[in-house]
Write a structure and sequence with these properties.
The complex is a heterodimer of chains A (260) and B (227). Chain A is of the alpha/beta class. Chain A is 41% helix and 23% strand. Chain A contains 11 helices and 10 strands. A 6-stranded mixed beta sheet of chain A has the order 6-7-8-3-9-10, with helices on both faces. With 227 residues, chain B is of the alpha/beta class. Chain B contains 7 helices and 9 strands. A 5-stranded parallel beta sheet of chain B has the order 6-7-8-3-9, with helices on both faces. A 4-stranded antiparallel beta sheet of chain B has the order 2-1-4-5, with helices on one face. In chain B, α3 crosses α4 and α3 runs parallel beside α5. The longest helix of chain B is centred in the C-terminal third of the chain and has 16 residues. Chain B starts with a strand and ends in a 10-residue tail after the last strand. Classes of the chains: A alpha/beta (260), B alpha/beta (227).
Chain lengths: 260, 227
């Protein structure tokens, strides 16, 4: 029972309260709140325009929300200085873009892409950096002899795996992912899901993953938040929300999908 | 170990005129440690619905489902997740896994999630797969391409990998040949012997007679269907 008690008494890693972002009169997201605990994967689903991407960019510090609070490990992130914020984005937080080109430096070698993030947090020893980079390329199943190749020579799936290595090399505790399997072939998606699932489990990562793919959240997310018109309409255990949806919109969303 | 009181459930179909369908009312049952209780009642009477509510997969309308110290009906999602990891196992009829993950890893995964060292987890997984007659040459492959019977056995191996104090079994012997059926019945008997509380659905009457200590007819919990 100790495991049960640990799970229940742990403090949230990320606590979000009343997050609101407006674009003039239009609502980006409205009054969003949730707690994310260490090792937990939270999926956010909804159609395009539902506010899920706005929410993610506010959470990850790419946009400033109009109202609300974001507490990371108890600290008020929105009150951080620019220097503190940058340190957070380079160290404890990571962000995996849908398009690997937005998260990679295309003119720099694969090893350089991974090493660069290590150097940003203070690593200076070239041999150690290269060794860590090689190790991480192996963990995302990129052969060591591709370390000096540029990402432009990689397939889409490899680029996405490289982006994941670049993000995880600094040992972040919280990872934001925006449609990480979007735009990939189904077989490549499966490989990426397998990889992400293993990394989340082995490293104890907390993840916020935005996607429109219910099959992806079914396999990766512990909990699910369903958004519509900028608001959260339903949240709960992933399999419960998908198998016994309560809100009219979630019922429509689930029944519109072929076999999840 | 498992105690259900006054449990109710209805489905509201918002996109079909908001019709509400009551499917369960006044359900109650108790499963003690070391005991196996079988759910019976004709198809559609709510056996699977009840099992899904116990697992937290369906939301209950009212009542309580106590498993150890947790009430599944009112628990937070993360409490249910912790319960599923450590206390409450589930062998469903269908295997749902991340494609491409080798069978050995699929079976070891519940133990890895509990923090069991990888070597010990894989040894336990290998023992179970061997007992369930899954040929070793298949262990490195994903079970997604296996036959129905093989997938069912992988699912059982996964469900028995950790010694859960409480277990839900949904037709564990369906689509198994006599030899493998015998292995599964022994696994259930061993789980009972170590004190697990088991709630199950068994259409296989021989299996039911052998492992179940009591039967509960869910027809009595189905609104408008009381016998």
């Amino acid at each position: 029972m100790t495991l049960m008690q640990n799970a229940i008494t742990a403090a949230p890693l990320l606590s979000v309260q009343g997050l609101t972002k407006r674009y003039g009169a239009r609502i980006g997201c409205m009054g969003v709140g949730f707690d994310l605990y260490p090792g937990e994967v939270l999926g956010i689903v909804g159609e395009s325009g539902s506010g899920k991407s706005t929410l993610l960019s506010c959470l990850a510090g790419h946009q400033r929300p109009d109202e609300g609070r974001i507490l990371f490990d108890g600290a008020d992130v929105l009150a951080f200085s620019e220097a503190e914020r940058r340190r957070l984005l380079r160290g404890d937080w990571a962000y995996v873009h849908q398009n690997p080109r937005d998260g990679l430096r295309m003119g720099v070698s694969a090893g350089g892409n991974v090493g660069e993030r290590l150097m940003a947090v203070g690593a200076r020893n070239y041999a150690a950096i290269r060794e860590t980079a090689t190790d991480w390329l192996g963990r995302v199943e990129i052969a060591a002899d591709r370390i000096d190749d540029r990402p432009s020579a990689f397939s889409g799936g490899m680029q996405q795996r490289l982006q994941i290595a670049r993000n995880l090399v600094t040992g972040p505790r919280l990872v934001f992912m925006d449609e990480p399997t979007g735009g990939l072939d189904v077989s490549v998606q499966a490989r990426l899901l397998d990889l992400l699932g293993g990394l989340v489990r082995d490293l104890g990562l907390s993840v916020v993953i935005v996607t429109h793919d219910l099959a992806v959240v079914r396999l990766l997310a512990d909990r699910l938040m369903v958004m519509k018109s900028g608001r959260v309409v339903e949240c709960g255990l992933t399999d419960q929300v998908l198998d016994d949806p309560q809100h009219a919109y979630t019922q429509l969303l689930v029944s519109s999908v072929l076999q999840v | 170990m498992i105690e259900i009181r006054n449990l109710s459930k209805s489905f509201t179909l918002h996109n079909q005129g908001g019709v509400a369908i009551p499917v369960m009312a006044g359900a109650h049952l108790r499963v003690a440690g070391g005991e196996c209780v079988g759910l019976v009642g004709r198809s559609g009477a709510g056996k699977s619905t009840l099992m899904r509510m116990v697992y937290g997969n369906y939301l209950a309308g009212g009542g309580s489902i106590r498993i150890g110290e947790i009430d599944v009906v009112t628990a937070e999602p993360r409490q249910i997740l912790a319960l599923r990891r450590a206390v409450l196992g589930h062998v469903s009829q269908f295997l749902r896994v991340v494609p491409r993950v080798p069978t050995l890893e699929v079976v070891a995964e519940p133990l890895l999630r509990l923090g069991v060292p990888p070597e010990a987890a894989r040894t336990r997984a290998a023992d179970l797969l061997a007992r369930l007659n899954i040929p070793e040459r298949l262990w490195r492959l994903s079970p997604t391409t296996f036959s129905g019977g093989e997938q069912q056995r992988v699912n059982i191996a996964r469900g028995f990998a950790h010694d859960y104090p409480a277990l839900l079994l949904d037709e564990p012997t369906a689509s198994l040949d006599a030899q493998n059926r015998e292995v599964v019945l022994r696994l259930i008997e061993e789980a009972k012997a170590r004190g697990a509380a088991i709630l199950g659905i068994f259409h296989d009457e021989g299996a039911r007679d052998r492992v179940c200590d009591r039967l509960v007819d869910v027809t009595g919990f189905t609104p408008g269907m009381a016998a």
